[in-house]
Amino acid sequence: MELLLVLVLGLLYAAGVYLILRRSLVKLLLGIMLLGNGTNVLIFLLGKITKGSPPVIDESYKVFQDIYADPIPQALILTAIVISFALTSFAIVLLKRVYALVNSDDLDDLNTPEEEDL
Amino acid sequence: MKSAILQTATRYLLPILLLFSFFLLLRGHYFPGGGFVGGLVASIAFVLHSLANGTASTMKILGYKPISLIPIGLAISTVSIMLPMLFNLPPMTGLWFEEPIPVIGMIGSALFFDLGVYLVVIGVVLTILFTIALDE
Amino acid sequence: MIDNHILAPVFVQLFTAVIQLMFWRKTLTQRYLSVGGSFIGLLVAIRLFSRVYQDGILTMNAANWDAPFGIVFVADLLSVTLVLLTSIACFAVSIFSSIGVSRQRMLYGYFPIFHFLIMGLHGAFLTGDIFNLYVYFEVIIISSFVLMTLGGRKAQLEGAVKYMAMNILASMFFLTGIGLLYGLTGSLNMADLALKVRQVQDGTLVGITSCFFILGFGIKSAVFPLYYWLPSSYHTPPSAVAATFGGLLTKVGIYAMLRVFSLIFVPDEFTRTLLMVIACATILTGAFGAIIKTNIRRLFSYLIVCHIGFMIGGIAMFSKLALMGVVFYLIHDIAVKTNMFLIAGLIRQLRGTMDMDKLGGLYRDYPKISVLIALVLFSLVGIPPLSGFWPKIFLFQEAFLQTQYFFVAALIVGSFVTLYVIANMWAQVFWKNPPREEEVDDRFAPMQPYRKLLMVLPIGMLALTTLYIGLNAEAIVLVAEKISSQLIDTSTYIEAVLNKNNEL
Asked: Where are its TM segments located (chain B) (predicted)?
């Protein structure tokens, strides 16, 4: 399981880095999303994953008796997902605006010459 | 996309999904669920409706703009965060009523916080989706 | 000591923003609310500062969970000093915005977002939990994205795309660092981390983790190889927004670096050399970039980069004297950089342009305002006894003591270029006769007197703050000394966070 996650993690990071180095705006966005997911998998992996032992306590016990999954990485990932949801939706609206304005997906077409400064 | 099957199905799915989202909101403190998930389910119900019947008719159901849910939700959450400070406890401490209320169960400040989150999530998600959908 | 009210500055800003959201599209009410909320925030920050200055570090356990397990908020002297300065800058900017931001932008929610941004800043300064710091960073960047894109001119969108991509990347590095740190130690509380990181056997892994933090905070604070998003985006938004960004956002990066590298990773030889190289390169690139720019705001953006280098160099030297220099410079920089962008906005109102080639003759037309601006510019350059002068003494002294001659050279070059650039700007904008063929677009003269006052008052207020920092340097040095000894000897911080159960 760990090995699989490590491979997935590497793949996500590699694909993310490759995509954000492209000139296309959409690929930039996809790359950022993949990097974000890669980071989430990393946190999940580093939280010492256990199989089939939820971090929920049985009602009859006062304290944990058994091995249990660490709940903190899950909380962190959930927070990170919510945040990246907000960032991604903002980025989509922004890129849509840009596309409507310059009618192109290429970052180079967006450049404004310095003479147009206020 | 106009499909008679989907339109008929949404007519029944919308109230069921909304009820389910409310159920998720109420059980959220000790069990899986909570304001965020509940809010997402509720907004998905409206999104499904807008897919079947068009965004305009969904906005008609809602009556007013979803963006106005955001300040209401934020205000509820903020007040429930700050309420414990009146009792000389740190912010965000859970305050609970002594007796459980029938059907709902124990009520505490955490529920009001979740209610605020629920409203904010519906407001934000629907605002974003309507903004993207109506531009086209 | 436990104090349940240390989050008051955050709540004031949050409440202001929420109430403003309820008055959506009523811009006049929003303006009053913004100025009023900022003023209350300033009072609360002053009270918090005086309490921490007298009683020492205050802490608060959110939701009553004890320290290493729950999220803890800590108000030590560094945090409250920055909260106080942020509140001053916020008050000034919100007064300026009530005139300097177009109604169109206000209709799209400029004021609530601005207060969310300030809330994020306060929260980032006050939190004692590293993941919570990340969350507040995200609050800051989401608000700043919105502020940056409001208006939607093409140049603005271009700046926003670069700004967005780089800042999301920075958060990603930061989050990766947090993940690694959690994997190494199993804790997120910064005081707890400070103890646990020292017990980690594998020094290389700790080093790699610290590199992620350098990368993340480095992008945020715009250091040498990662700075380029700043000069290509800060000249696009309205001046009130640029003032908030230029004065406060890069400084959060410096604050986070100070906190993380004093508390969690005590810099070793490698990190210090790395930071020193980065610092020298940052000063030089910022300085050379500033020389060739003719647009005032682009010039100021490069000066921000240049002066970030001063602070990074101080962190790299990591001694009591150097950190005193850094903290003093931070205090001076927030007041002055915010003011500079407000000044750029004022110049645009006076002349309709920010291009130095098209400007001129401001001293002839507005002598009083020019003198006020001169005060700020001179204190940026560091003419004694104004505020920019004092921190440089500490930095020079420590650089000589540690025989960091490259840094001394970079400091001298940076200071001289700042002097040259500002003198050049002064000559071009204020003394030179205006180019005749240009039609002057003066929107300031026909304004009603109270509107004029609202534009000049914040600049005057921040200039007074600068003057106070410069003339009353002894008091500021005292504060800086206390802060830097707290940063070097972190045991008081750790004890305050972890051992307060005994005091209950």
From this structure: 12-30, 36-55, 67-87, 107-134
C169 touches chain A (CB under 8 A): yes
Residue C72 has a CB neighbour count (10 Å cut-off) of: 27
Q: Which partners does chain A have (≥3 C-beta pairs < 8 Å)?
A: B, C
What is the CATH classification number for the domain harbouring A77? 1.10.287
Q: Largest Cα–Cα distance in chain C?
A: 75
C346 or B94: which carries more pLDDT confidence?
C346
Cβ distance A117 to C152 less than 8 Å, yes or no, reads no
Token pair 């609050």 in the structure block, residue: C139
Burial (CB count <10 Å: 0-12, 13-18, 19+), residue C205: middle
Q: What are the helix and strand counts (H, E) for chain A?
A: 3, 0
Residues 6+ apart with CB under 8 A from C336: C376, C379, C380, C387, C388, C462, C466
Q: Could you identify the residue written with the tokens 């990368």?
A: C215
Distance CA B83, CA B74 (A): 14
Å from B37 to nearest chain A CA? 11
- Closest of C159, A11, A86, C170 to residue A19, by C-alpha: A11
Q: Is residue A61 part of a domain?
A: no
Q: Does any domain span residue A40?
A: yes
Is residue B104 a contact partner of residue C19, using CB atoms and an 8 Å limit?
no
**Whether the predicted pLDDT of B36 surpasses 80:** yes
Domain range list for chain C:
8-503
Q: What is the pTM of this model?
A: 0.92
Q: Is A100 within the bounds of a domain?
A: yes
Q: What is the pLDDT of residues C295-338, one digit of tens each?
A: 888 899 999 999 999 999 999 988 899 999 999 999 999 999 99
Concatenated DSSP letters for C231-272? TTTTTSS-HHHHHHIIIIIHHHHHHHHHHHHHHTS---HHHH
Chains in contact with C via at least 3 Cβ–Cβ pairs below 8 Å: A, B
Please choose, from the candidates C272, C216, C21, A69, the residue with its C-alpha nearest in 3D space to the C-alpha of residue B120: C21
CB contact under 8 A, B131 and A82: no
Contacts of C320 (CB under 8 A, 6+ apart): C481, C484, C485, C488
SS3 C185: helix
- Residue numbers of the domain that contains A29: 2-51+69-104
What are the phi and psi torsion angles at C58 (to 5°)?
A: -110, 145
CB spacing of C169 vs A20 below 8 angstroms? yes
| DSSP strand pairing (C72-75 vs C58-61) | antiparallel
* Cβ neighbours of A87 in C, within 8 Å: 138, 141-142, 168
Is there a contact between B85 and C21 if contact means CB atoms under 8 Å apart?
no
Per-residue pLDDT band at C12 (split at 50, 70, 90): very high
The count of CB pairs under 8 A between chains A and C is 94
Nearest to B82 among C11, C21, C22 (CB): C11
Mean residue pLDDT of chain A comes to 84
ipTM: 0.91
User: Does position A47 have pLDDT exceeding 80, yes or no?
Assistant: no
Amino acid identity, position C238: P
Q: Which residue of C has its CA nearest to B74?
A: C18
**Tokens, residue C231:** 């000069």
Q: Are C51 and C488 in contact (CB under 8 A)?
A: no
